[in-house]
Amino acid sequence: MENPTNPQVDQNPNAGSAGPDQNIVTPATFDNPYKAAMRGETIIQQRLLNSGVSWFNTIAAFSLVNSVLAVVNAPIAFLAGLGLSRLVTEVARATSGQLGSTVIVIGVVLNLIAAAIFFMLGGFAKKRQTWAFVVGMVGYGADALLCLLVGLWFSAAFHAYAIYHLYKGFNACRQLNEIEQSQVGGFYL
User: Fold this and answer.
1) Model pTM score
2) Are 56 and 176 in contact (CB under 8 A)?
3) Can you give the residue ranges of every domain in the chain?
4) What letter would DSSP give residue 11?
5) What is the C-alpha separation between 63 and 23, in angstroms, rounded?
6) C-alpha distances in angstroms, 44 versus 27, 31, 159, 172?
7) What contacts 153, CB < 8 A, 6 or more positions away?
8) Rounded to the nearest 10 degrees, what angle do helices 102-126 and 130-149 cross at?
9) What are the start-end ranges of the H helices in 6-82?
10) What 8-state DSSP symbol labels residue 133?
11) Cα separation, 89 vs 149, whole angstroms
12) How far is CA 147 from CA 65, 79, 87, 132, in A?
């Protein structure tokens, strides 16, 4: 006799068997197909959330790297960092001849603050705070506009790509929060 929820699995594994040598493999079944689907959806959304969180950390890390590269007069910069940190470092370097090296230190401190904000937003996003994604997308969007204003076209395009991934993380965060709210006493409504 076939199981109505899974027609390939026989409810009585000994029925019609030719003998004890026959190996019967039955797949693991869930007591509630909706519950199983929600587990799978939760796993998918958690991965998307983690991806969005990692973008905050990537932006912050590359902002710090770009700041160090600008201070040592390196001819390269990474697209993933904040355009604001590049601008602050360049202004500090340009004015350091007139105002002294203190300006460079102030620029580095400002860049550390900007990177720390993105690291903190990533921490709040990991705790499924949707506002952190919104603040991050708006802030990085404003930074993309700054990149456009100063002519950093490739950096602005990369910003748009990163904002897309932050948005995917934001959607995953919302869906995970909705799934959690729909659970009452371990049961799915």
Assistant:
1) 0.74
2) no
3) 46-176
4) S
5) 59
6) 22, 21, 24, 8
7) 147
8) 140
9) 33-71
10) H
11) 17
12) 17, 10, 9, 22
Query: What does the pLDDT profile of the chain (189 residues) look like in tens digits?
Result: 445 555 454 454 555 455 555 555 545 545 665 665 667 888 888 999 999 999 999 999 999 998 888 888 888 888 888 988 888 888 888 887 777 778 888 888 999 999 999 999 999 999 999 999 999 999 999 999 999 999 989 999 999 999 999 999 999 999 999 888 877 555 544
Tell me which amino acid residue 64 is.
L
Cβ neighbours around 9 below 10 Å, total: 14
Backbone angles phi, psi at 2, to 5 degrees: -90, 150
Which DSSP state fits 32?
Answer: -
Give the integer Cα–Cα distance in Å for 110 and 79.
19
